[in-house]
Specification:
mainly alpha
Length: 87
């Protein structure tokens, strides 16, 4: 079962303001992420999952965003390998 960002936050007992402060963003930005979690960066999503104590894979960030994150990781790996002469 995957949790929404909002549900994960609620189960952790945190307010939107609490999460925003820890993530270092304005509460309005965090509120937008609850409605559109695909806009959250990979790093922020991982930080959020640690904060609410649910695994990254347990939180539903959106199928499209998960694909975008996966492709982003692959692209960064390919760029790194190219820069290092490994490609």
């Amino acid at each position: 079962m995957q949790l929404t960002v909002k549900k994960a936050r609620l189960l952790s007992g945190m307010t939107q303001k609490d999460v925003a402060e820890v993530l270092g963003v304005h509460v309005q930005t965090y509120m937008k992420w609850e409605k559109n979690p695909e806009e959250m960066s990979i790093g922020t999503a991982k930080q959020f999952s640690r904060l609410v104590k649910f695994g990254f894979d347990e939180i539903f960030f959106d199928k499209e965003s998960n694909l975008i994150r996966h492709n982003s990781i692959l692209n960064r790996t390919s760029e790194y390998e190219y820069m290092e002469g490994k490609a």
